[in-house]
């Protein structure tokens, strides 16, 4: 029987989108200011649209190519994936692009309105800028949940007639579990589409924003000696566009991808829980409670985020950074608290009170739904704590930053060593936090627990994105104030928002890494279940070799991204120099710089330079499978393990390099900023313009591509790698019923014999297990002691027999 | 029957040591020059001895503490390791220290003799400096092989009465295989002792040399404006001592440790080959040919290295770098070629023509001895190619260096980004090379093949070290020439040697990484056999969590080492400044600097700062086991897998960070050096003193701790981690016969059923397997087809039965 709950997440997503539309029209109704402001804002808007347009043109080609490849995969022998994965893929790409498009449009419309609002008061400026962020956050989260759940509903009817019963697929009878697996394999296309767009948005956006930034600074600030955001600088519009392209659209696409992938992975593992419980459960949700739960959490999370965003406000016009940060914190903490409550309600309501889950090497265990709830708490804890850890290593006035400041006095070399070391050391608490979270959530509820921990953490995505997007909006608002030569207090107000925005940008990156790490692990677990292998054994040399190769990829990817920024920035430098040289009166303000040319250069460079990292990311997993097929044509299990080893290598190394690069970059940035207010070095107050400050500026130059290009790209790299693995998995898979008929195999039933007394050392336990063609297993257990011999026989599916053997073992 | 071959490697080692003594007395007989030269050389010698003395004092405490801990381990319940592991450990530490001591003494005696020889001719200078290097190389290799083989001979008689037969241990009857395992577990103590000393020598030495170097440069060159190696600089002696402490003693201890560990791991895996073949083989080597083979290769390698060193000479006094490099290459390539021939002879002579080896997931396979030979070729190939790869990314005039030089024109920031990116990209070919080598040598001959690949590569250790040590000796010789104000042509001659030495230093680092990587993999494989687990499944979340933690350790270790250099260098800066301020006439050359004070500061700082990285390295594996025992008191298998996951994480990440840091550091160094001859930037010749050069100097400052401290330390970190795992392994082990008696368990016998025709889909294969208390296994295989039923019974040890089942499967 179908449950109404299958529709609820989609409905909640629509509610979120409706709220977003209302908020959006409120923001757009705000006063966009007068002449010059409007003009500049228009330039930024046009620049952003120009980038999007060029990007979409390229992406259309990519989507067509990838669709053909995906379609080809479904025709491979042994593949169970349905051709409709292509539709899911295209929609995933389109939805992700739509979300990015919408976010960037609202951000570029909100910036000037924030500037105008800042002319009246700070609370109003916060309201407008955070309003824009809210639109962005709800748009991304709403589209993510709506897209995924709508496709699930559609596929559930298409593949399973909306019921948990066995049925025909490709002319074979499949169990409900198998049909659901095929459904979810196909649904993975949506996630793959979203993440592919994210790759280009993050990497392309990262290259764009830094090329424009570095180019504008090198010629404008250093060579021509004009201040930041000066309208005479031809690259200044590109720079402001970059903030939106990189920080708004890039981050949005990143979290869109994480959100979808996390929920998907949790659904896959939910299906596995049902399988472990014997292939069907009786509940009020049509027997698919564990599969619906992650979607329900995501849906409720949207409503919670709406509540959270409503709490973000200040009333005092003289408020400082602390109050603004405090307002954001209230919203954030309330959302997290409400999510915990929602998880409790949903988990205890939707899951069976006790579930059976298989733990590799430990056998089957009874897991209560409360333990799943504890796993979600682990996820919420990680999401909250990771921000503090990031804040410690990158925050103004914190010990590591002060140490870097001190080291700046002996030159750029020591500043850079200190920054690198800070980033490297910051991996210590971060990795321990992640490792503990993996272990704890797994100990509570297996990999389903890990996936639900990620789901709970991601539930407040809309809120996180709102906080995140408000930063670049405020940054832009300040730029517009500067370029429009507005009164000083306007810039002061936007500066307060911008300063808070810098902190939230750093902590937001921490959240994005944490989400990427947990998402990848959940996908990794889903991968193993899709392929039907019973583990990834790194004691097999080919698997170990792939672990090495996987570990290397993030390092090389980062290097490529960094070099790309360098190349793109040089293009920009030459163009700005040319304009200064050739346009008469440009420095006097009488000649008009050709902003569009600079926007065009950044756009082209970003699109050109993201190709190689993209090929690396997508090509390597495919190459490994092809190589594996070449060397081991008959051993899909080993190839699946090799690909799994590669995925693990990319994930472990990718997380490390993400943390290292983001935090080193953030630390250098704030070490440089520390000089603005003045710092005490060797007993002397030191300010901007000092040699120590120059050293710190050099450090920041190194940190820019770290924190804005290569570091954040790691998130996409690890998620996309795991997703590609997941889509390939069915080809290597052993869950296919057809394969079972062809291979009659000895079943391994692992039972740890009860440790006998020392005197019983002659006790023998004999287990005989048989799997027949129809998948049924018969196990005969013979116990021989000194005095007697007894025989017990268990029959049923493999899962049932294992469960019975477990129970027998307990006796 | 005992074979004479057991004594041959030890005899060859003694031959090597005798040759070393002769060479040593020849070097010492060379003219040490006159007054000032002798005095300076004496200072360096004293400084080096002072460091060694202080270091040994600390190490004595460490060895005592570690011995107690090791002794305690042997008393743990379930541990099979014999108490004599403590003796092996102490001797390993003493031999390693002895080798380092000897190497450093000869290096500090050879430097001044090289200077003196350079007054007559370049060929003579090369002869002397390379003679010193040869003494160092043969001393290290000779002591390593002698120590390991002597202990093996002793233990073979002590544990097994010099025979491959079963025997009593701790009152239990053990098979010969088990006794050999216990023997090798105990022998691992020797390797652990050697590697522990290497940790302190490498890390301490690395900190020492860079603290002195950076301190001397910052105050001397930058603040006081006096040239490098100026005798008025109080830190200049410490700087020259540092070259010996870091590059000679550190590298020597590193390769000593690799050499011993590689041979040990290959022996462990050789024992496993015998086990896979049913527990005994009949050969002309007392049934232990596969175990003796790695020792034989090591022994013959010493003789080959002697031949190789004899070929290194030039005759032309006007020779340039290319000719000197060519002479070294001749020696190196001939050694590698001879080693290939020796491997062919030894492998085909000492191994059974065909061996059975178990491949996890693929079952037993017949491996011919020729395949083992191919595996050794893989090792030799890696050793040769890794140098070229390193040379490409760090060599003067190569593309990556030229790119960094170009980027220097836009400032230190772009120089540093380019250097970082170069180091990062260099992981691409390096990791692909390693991964292919692992895969290929494993495909040829399993993990025994991997270990023998490493053994073959390490066979020419003496030659590699000779090439390596000659660099810092020449560097020192140049320093002495400068400080003694000798004629210009002397310095020119030593500069040629020094320049070649810089190249060999970079390629030597490549060799050291490759050796560490392969050694660690061999140890990793040995670990799995010691613990008796059948793999490391990263799909178990606790194992995956430890993979993450392991991956993080090298990053944090590197950061600690880098910070240590910073702190120690600041101590040095303050001391040099103090002396310049307080000692009258120091700048005029009338006052005498207090060299000893600077030596003392470097010494103290190095010893103090190496504590934390040391604790991190040694403490974490122990902490993981303790944590595992706490959470899973009954599941040693899982704890062993967790520790294995940690080891894999450390190895993968450690290799990446070693390659990244060494190559980035080498690249920056040579980018800076490029300015000495002048470089073309944007069409203009640019020299020393230009802004671009200053930017390159900043890059080199960052690179110094990368390439001389944290980068090379990675080798020790990964090897020591795997060795500690190996020593802990027996506690977690399942190979213990006693444990078998206590746990009567169902044996998993994995058999892939032959794929039946589609029509035979009703065929059933039933396997019933029983393991009894005495370790014997009885397997009954019932085959039921549509028409008939047949039964076959196999009995014997687990390995035998598996082999028979494999054979059955083939039918």
Automatic annotation (TrEMBL), chains A, B:
This is Putative K(+)-stimulated pyrophosphate-energized sodium pump. Its cofactor is Mg(2+). GO terms for cellular component: endomembrane system; plasma membrane. Requires K(+) for maximal activity. It is a multi-pass membrane protein. One of its GO terms (biological process) is sodium ion transport. Keywords: Cell membrane, Ion transport, Magnesium, Membrane, Potassium, Sodium, Sodium transport, Translocase, Transmembrane, Transmembrane helix, Transport. One of its GO terms (molecular function) is inorganic diphosphate phosphatase activity. Sodium pump that utilizes the energy of pyrophosphate hydrolysis as the driving force for Na(+) movement across the membrane. The record marks 505 as: Determinant of potassium dependence. The keyword Membrane applies. Pfam families: H_PPase. Its EC number is 7.2.3.1. The chain crosses the membrane at residues 6-22, 58-76, 82-100, 135-160, 256-274, 286-312, 332-351, 372-396, 416-440, 447-467, 511-530, 542-562, 610-631, 643-660. PANTHER family: K(+)-INSENSITIVE PYROPHOSPHATE-ENERGIZED PROTON PUMP. It is an enzyme of class 7 (translocase). It comes from the Bacteria. It is found in: Cell membrane; Endomembrane system. NCBIfam families: PRK00733.2-4 (NF001955), PRK00733.3-5 (NF001960), V_PPase (TIGR01104). Homodimer.
């Amino acid at each position: 029987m179908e449950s109404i709950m299958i529709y609820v997440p989609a409905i909640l997503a629509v509610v979120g989108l409706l709220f977003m539309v209302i908020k959006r029209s409120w923001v757009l109704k705000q006063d966009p200011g007068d002449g010059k402001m409007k003009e500049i804002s228009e330039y930024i808007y046009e620049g952003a649209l120009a980038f999007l347009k060029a990007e979409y043109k390229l992406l259309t080609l990519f989507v067509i190519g990838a669709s053909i490849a995906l379609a080809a995969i479904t025709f491979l022998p042994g593949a169970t994936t349905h051709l409709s994965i292509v539709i899911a893929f295209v929609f995933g790409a389109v939805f992700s692009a739509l979300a990015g498009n919408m976010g960037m449009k609202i951000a570029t419309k909100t910036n000037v309105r924030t500037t105008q609002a800042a002319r009246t008061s700070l609370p109003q400026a916060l309201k407008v800028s955070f309003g824009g962020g809210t639109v962005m956050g709800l748009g991304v989260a709403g589209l993510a949940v709506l897209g995924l759940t709508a496709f699930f509903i559609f596929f559930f009817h298409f593949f399973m007639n909306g019921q948990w019963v066995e049925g025909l697929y490709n002319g074979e009878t499949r169990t409900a579990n198998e049909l659901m697996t095929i459904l979810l394999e196909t649904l993975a296309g949506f996630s793959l589409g979203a993440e592919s767009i994210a790759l280009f948005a993050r990497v392309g956006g990262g290259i764009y924003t830094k090329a424009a930034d570095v180019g504008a600074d090198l010629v404008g600030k250093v060579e021509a000696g004009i201040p930041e955001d000066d309208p005479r600088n031809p690259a200044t519009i590109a720079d402001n566009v970059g903030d939106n392209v990189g920080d708004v659209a890039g981050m949005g696409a990143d979290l869109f991808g994480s959100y979808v992938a996390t929920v998907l992975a949790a659904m896959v593992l939910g299906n596995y829980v049902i399988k472990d419980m014997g292939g069907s459960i009786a509940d009020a949700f049509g027997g698919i409670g564990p599969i619906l739960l992650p979607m329900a959490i995501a849906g409720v999370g949207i409503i919670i985020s709406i509540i959270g965003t409503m709490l973000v406000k200040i009333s005092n016009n003289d408020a400082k950074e602390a109050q603004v940060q405090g307002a954001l914190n209230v919203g954030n903490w309330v959302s997290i608290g409400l999510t915990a409550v929602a998880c409790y309600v949903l988990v205890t309501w939707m899951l069976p009170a006790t579930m059976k889950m298989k733990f590799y090497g430990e056998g089957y265990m009874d897991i209560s739904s409360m333990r799943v709830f504890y796993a979600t708490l682990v996820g919420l804890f990680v999401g909250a704590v990771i921000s503090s850890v990031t804040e410690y290593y990158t925050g103004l006035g914190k010990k590591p930053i002060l140490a870097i400041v001190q080291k700046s006095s002996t030159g750029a070399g020591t500043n850079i060593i200190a920054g690198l070391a800070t980033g490297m050391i910051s991996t210590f608490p971060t990795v321990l936090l992640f490792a503990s979270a993996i272990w704890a959530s797994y100990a509570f509820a297996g990999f389903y627990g890990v996936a639900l921990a990620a789901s709970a953490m991601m539930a407040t995505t809309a809120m996180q994105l709102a906080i995140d997007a408000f930063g670049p909006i405020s940054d832009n608002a300040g730029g517009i104030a500067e370029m429009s030569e507005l009164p000083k207090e306007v810039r002061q107000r936007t500066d307060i928002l911008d300063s808070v925005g810098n902190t939230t940008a750093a902590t937001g990156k921490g959240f994005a890494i944490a989400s990427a790490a947990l998402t990848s692990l959940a996908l990794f677990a889903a991968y193993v279940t899709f392929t039907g292998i019973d583990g990834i054994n790194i004691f097999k040399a080919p698997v170990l070799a792939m672990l090495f190769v996987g570990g290397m990829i993030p390092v090389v990817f980062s290097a490529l991204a960094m070099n790309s920024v360098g190349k793109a920035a040089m293009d920009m430098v030459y163009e700005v120099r040319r304009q200064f040289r050739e346009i008469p009166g440009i420095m006097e303000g009488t000649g008009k710089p050709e902003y569009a040319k600079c926007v065009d250069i950044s756009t082209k460079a970003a699109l050109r330079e993201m190709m190689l990292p993209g090929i690396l990311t997508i090509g390597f997993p495919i190459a490994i499978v092809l190589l594996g097929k070449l060397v081991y044509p008959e051993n899909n299990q080993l190839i699946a393990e090799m690909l799994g080893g590669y995925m693990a290598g990319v994930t472990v190394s990718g997380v490390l390099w993400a943390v290292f690069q983001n935090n080193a970059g953030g630390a250098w940035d704030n070490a440089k900023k520390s000089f603005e207010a003045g710092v005490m070095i060797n007993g002397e107050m030191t300010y901007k313009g000092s040699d120590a400050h120059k050293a710190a500026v050099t450090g920041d130059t190194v940190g820019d591509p770290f924190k804005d290009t290569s570091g954040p790209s790691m998130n996409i790299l690890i998620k996309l790698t795991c997703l590609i693995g997941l889509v390939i998995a069915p080809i290597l898979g052993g869950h296919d019923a057809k394969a079972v008929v062809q291979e009659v195999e000895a079943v391994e039933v692992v039972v740890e014999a009860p440790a006998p007394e020392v005197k019983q050392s002659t006790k023998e336990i004999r287990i005989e297990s048989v799997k027949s063609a129809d998948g049924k297993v018969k196990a005969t257990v013979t116990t021989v002691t000194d005095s007697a011999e007894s025989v017990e026989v268990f029959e049923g599916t493999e899962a049932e027999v294992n469960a019975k053997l477990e129970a027998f073992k307990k006796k």
